[in-house]
Amino acid sequence: MDNNEWVKAIAESELKDGVPAVVEVEEKKVLLVRSEGKIYACGNECSHYHAPLSDGLIAGHVVTCPWHNARFDIRDGQLVSPPGLNGVPSYETKVEGAHVWIRQSGKGTIPMPEGEDGRTMLIVGAGAAGNSAAETLRREGFAGRIVMVTGEAYGPYDRTMLSKDLLSGEAPTKWLPLRGQKFYDRLNIELMTEKQVTAVDPASRTVTFADGSTMSADRILIATGGRPRTLPVSGADKAGCHTLRSRKDAEAILAELEAAKTAVIVGASFIALEVACSLRTREIQVHIVAPEEIPLAKVFGEQIGGRIKKTHEENGVRFHLGQTVKEFAGSEKVSEVVLADGSRLEADLVIIGVGVNPAVEFLEGSGLTEDGAVPVNARLETTAEGIFAAGDIAVFPDGRSGEPRRVEHWVEAGRQGMHAARCMLGSKDPYREVPFFWSKQYGSSLRYIGHAPNFDEVVFRGSLTDKFFLAGFYVDGKLAAVASVGRARELIRLGQLLEAGKSVSPDQLEDPEFDILTF
Ligand SMILES: Cc1cc2nc3c(=O)[nH]c(=O)nc-3n(C[C@H](O)[C@H](O)[C@H](O)COP(=O)(O)OP(=O)(O)OC[C@H]3O[C@@H](n4cnc5c(N)ncnc54)[C@H](O)[C@@H]3O)c2cc1C
Questions:
Q1: Distances (CA, A) of 240 to 143, 274, 276, 322, 514
Q2: Fewer CB under 10 Å: which end of the chain, C or N?
Q3: C-alpha–C-alpha distance, residues 192 and 215, integer Å
């Protein structure tokens, strides 16, 4: 196939209409789909974490990955939406001698656009949103100057891995970068590290850096993510007390893990719980201190929150719930955590996981912020023309209700970065994605689609104990969000319904006979 030759893939009779087939051709897995009389073929491995796309869901010409909902166009392998970065390989197909034959036609990579463009696009922040925007600009054919700056010492990396496989020791740091420097060189994306932005002047579209230098651009995207909150508690600044947002934070924690026997985690957020899980993999004794009675009950309700707590307890985590921290004690380094009730927990290190604030302090006085975040319109443009914002800092109108919404999810940030890039190039399309996030703890991925900061009913399909369920979060009888472990296809389908502004009733969701996939 590398020689651009046709290869026999499958007997034509085996390929049923609308039923995807996977064939292995020269050690590559290829997804074949017959739809409306045509046969399409593309790579079957998601470009994000290599999940088999055949376990996902195909709707029209789009296949959605079962793990983290990256989407690809089966006709040409193009990336439709993150968290994938590249597309997947694409293949021409033909039917000859009762067989389907395929020939590779594309690799799914982003070409460097030809031509000239005098414009400069400046991207502030090299995280999920910033990187996705830079790549999208090139994918959309923009041939002008792209500059992406970050205050960190590293270019774009997989932040979600920090609390999971990196801390557990299952992933080496070399797996973190989203791309190598060669990629940015090939696409002529100027990546500037350790370049902290200290101010933005919206009128002249100019940013000022910490070293006093300035830069103006035709379009600016601000995607600076979040800063972890800390606690206004005595000793929180002692050595050994950590927060976790950046690769540098993770490396500081890693450096202490080798010698650590006991860790105290403050907060029962997603990051806190993932860190607890990673530290248990290393057999470190873990205490979690948090004011709530049930972890994540606000997000998932008490049943799922209770199940999450139980799983942690089964894995040896000790919870101190309904508790707050009075003091981080120790001479130079933290050695004990004193709780409000006077009890004391030994701690070789402390990780504070109590949420993040949007990283917008450098925008003070620019007029771009409101209530500590950056409001944008449906095109993700701020109140200043030509300045866009995406990711954790952006408050945007929900694609269906129009209500202001801000979420802190990796996939959402990537999708917003992609959308913002298109709008920087002139698109007038509104952003309409339904948010998706996941968390992985003890080998099990909990996935969530939708937005339900409040809900009045949680309806289940399947078994929470068997870790194979869907949970629908309802507001006034209308589905607002769905969480799932294991039931990826139904979750994706329900996400599609949410996107279309549709709902399945609580009775339908609960009824095992009701076919969500064909609804
Ligand atoms: C440990 C961890 C695990 C997570 N796991 C998950 C998960 O499993 N699933 C999920 O959905 N979400 C997860 N998240 C959340 C997800 O990572 C964020 O929602 C996402 O990274 C937001 O993307 P962003 O582009 O808005 O910001 P970020 O990815 O935070 O990127 C911000 C960028 O801006 C730069 N920056 C900030 N201020 C400045 C400045 N003044 N000047 C220059 N550069 C600046 C930063 O250095 C960085 O490059 C996790 C987050 C963390 C910290």
A1: 47, 19, 16, 24, 53
A2: C
A3: 12
Query: Which ligand 1 atom is the nearest neighbour of the CA of 438?
Result: 9
Q: How far is the CA of 476 from the centre of ligand 1 (A)?
A: 33
Neighbour count for residue 477 (Cβ, 10 Å): 10
DSSP 116: -
For the Cβ of 436 lying below 6 angstroms from any atom of ligand 1, the answer is: no
| 223: phi then psi, degrees, rounded to nearest 5 | -145, 70
Span from the CA of 243 to the centroid of ligand 1 (angstroms): 13
CA of 511 to the centre of ligand 1 (A): 39
Q: Find out whether 31 and 9 touch, Cβ atoms under 8 Å.
A: no
Per-residue pLDDT of the chain (519 residues; tens, 9 = 90+): 656 899 999 999 999 988 999 999 889 999 999 988 899 999 999 999 999 999 999 999 999 999 999 999 999 999 999 999 999 999 999 999 999 999 999 999 999 999 999 999 999 999 999 999 999 999 999 999 999 999 999 999 999 999 999 999 999 999 999 999 999 999 999 999 999 999 999 999 999 999 999 999 999 999 999 999 999 999 999 999 999 999 999 999 999 999 999 999 999 999 999 999 999 999 999 999 999 999 999 999 999 999 999 999 999 999 999 999 999 999 989 999 999 999 999 999 999 999 999 999 999 999 999 999 999 999 999 999 999 999 999 999 999 999 999 999 999 999 999 999 999 999 999 999 999 999 999 999 999 999 999 999 999 999 999 999 999 999 999 999 999 999 999 999 999 999 999 999 999 999 999 999 999
Phi-psi region of 158 (alpha: psi -120 to 50; beta: other; left: phi over 0): beta
CA nearest ligand 1 atom 30, residue = 225
Whole-model pTM: value is 0.98
Measured in Å, residue 389 CA sits from the centre of ligand 1 at 14
> Which atom in ligand 1 lies closest to the alpha carbon of residue 439?
8
Q: How far is CA 499 from CA 68, 159, 172, 401, 449, in A?
A: 17, 27, 37, 11, 10
Kindly state if the Cβ of 126 falls inside 6 Å of ligand 1: yes
